[in-house]
Amino acid sequence: MSKKTSNKVKDKNLKERHNFFLNPYEDCAFTKCPKCEAKTKIRKFPLVIHIEPQQLFFLNKQCKYCPTCDLIIAKKQEIESLMAFGLSQSHPKIIGNKYVVIGTVDKKDWKEGSQESLSPAEIIERTYIFQDIWNFEVIPAGWYPKGEQ
Fewest beta carbons less than 10 Å away: which of 34, 75, 76, 108? Predict the structure, then answer.
């Protein structure tokens, strides 16, 4: 009898918290959770963002949050403009590079990291990676012929 192995390799030191959706839609605010339809709340989360090549960026950002699904929804356009502003003085060459929002940290760790008193290894060690990255497709409201929804 063989055991099934997961495609997702997990490190024992990595901690997981929250689900995440990077909202690419400029005209959708997601006032209701796209999964459970509950009203979303507004919460501030200290996000950890990896920017290529090898740059970590902290962003304490207000996001939509569904406590039922433990889902954080962040607008892509807002994150990109705040990153551009934050990097314009210190690292202007990496503005526009590929990035990945990898997780969150505790508020006290965000404060320490913002003051550059933490090494990148310590930041990664204290980061809570996202349990899952979700993606939703918005279907515009309107009338559709039967069977095309």
Answer: 108
